[in-house]
Amino acid sequence: MSVPSEPSEPSGPSGGPEVSPRTPRRFLFVVPPLVGHVNPTLGIAAELTARGHQVAWAGMPEVVERLTGRGATVYRCAGPVLGEGGAGRPPDVRGPAALKFLWERFLVPLAEAMAPGVATAIEEFRPDVVVADQQTVAGALVAERLGVRWATSATTSAEFTGALDGMPKIDAWLDGLLHEVRGRIGDPGGTADPRFAPDLVLAFTTEELAGRPARAGDRIHYVGPSIAERPATADFPWEWLDPTRPAVLITLGTANADAGARFLTECLAAVRARAGRFQAVIVDPDEVLAPDTPHDNDVLVRRYVPQLPLLRRVNAVVCHAGHNTVCETLWHGVPLVVAPIRDDQPVVAAQVVDAGAGIRVRFGRARASAIGEALDAVLDEPRYRAAAERVGASFRAAGGATAAATHLERLATASAATHATVNPEGER
Fold first, then answer.
1. For the segment 110-135, what is each residue's pLDDT rounded down to a tens digit?
2. By residue range, what is the domain housing residue 315?
3. Are strands 201-203 and 220-222 parallel, antiparallel or unpaired?
4. Contacts of residue 283, Cβ cutoff 8 Å, sequence gap at least 6
5. Is residue 258 a contact partner of residue 89, using CB atoms and an 8 Å limit?
6. Does 248 lie in the same domain as 216?
7. Residue 405 CA: distances (Å) to CA of 50, 117, 178, 193, 268
8. 316: domain CATH number?
């Protein structure tokens, strides 16, 4: 599916000069070892490369190279992987406790472990702009310390839609935590919030889904999902899909397998209770379902699936309300049953329901009957698909990777102009 280009604008961020497509720039993407955070960078990187620019990543090659394919330039950074070792969260941790665990046990250790590698990447690659994932604050803090312009890659809208407005103590605690991290790996005198770049925040959603921003609205650009073809990582028996019946995809993403056994079992029971009505593909990466679960004309259980191609063939998705999965689903005009687990997922689930594009069920308590009734509704009631298609249309109109690349070009041009004025010799 092609993405229309964003209409051209006369100036870049803060009134900077127009982009000259003949001037090659360098862009460094700083990403965590999380698939849903790397995927949006792929389309932007491909677009920038097609325009003659150079791109590289700073992150864990074991994760990044699996998604970018061979030939990508990846600067190695150390760090924990969510769900492994000390970064693994107990399945029952929810709400503010889950947020606290995420930052203290994963995101802060990740930032401190990645900082030396990010510094090396900046010094060797010499980017005009660092594109730092919103939760990979090492990218922002090290770029600020080294005097390099940076942009934020916001793979979830929860941070700027007021999700913490009702929890001022949590908000203050997080601000204090980030201040401490800046003192250890950044410029102690810096003032920018590492989650919101001063010049540009790329939000991979639209107001049609996320609503108006409650903070940093002056620098947020809603570009919609950055959808790009990915290297094939999973085979799929496409002949199994019956074109005469609806199909449903059931997935909890890549970081929630530890909590998913009960829910996936209930989903399987809901599908079995509707034998013959639709087909269901259940993604079970850790094989939490019984290993002898039969594959028949109604159910197919796979450890991995090619999600984007599959979304073109399904009629509904049951998921954990992960931002990336939700947005890719709505891009294809497919309605959802969302069962948020933790982190930003309750916020994203509320956005889906408010947009009319799906139904929310309780992850920890929903039984097969409730899941099945929700599936019946999103498959049979046209209003859910109509709402999903409306959100998907707003995504495509926002420009996706094409628009994001244009915003980054403008920021790079402004950065180059600033450096040329400050240092006429062109040295950083």
1. 999 999 999 999 999 999 999 999 99
2. 238-395
3. parallel
4. 249, 250, 251, 252, 302, 303, 304, 305
5. yes
6. no
7. 10, 25, 28, 23, 41
8. 3.40.50.2000
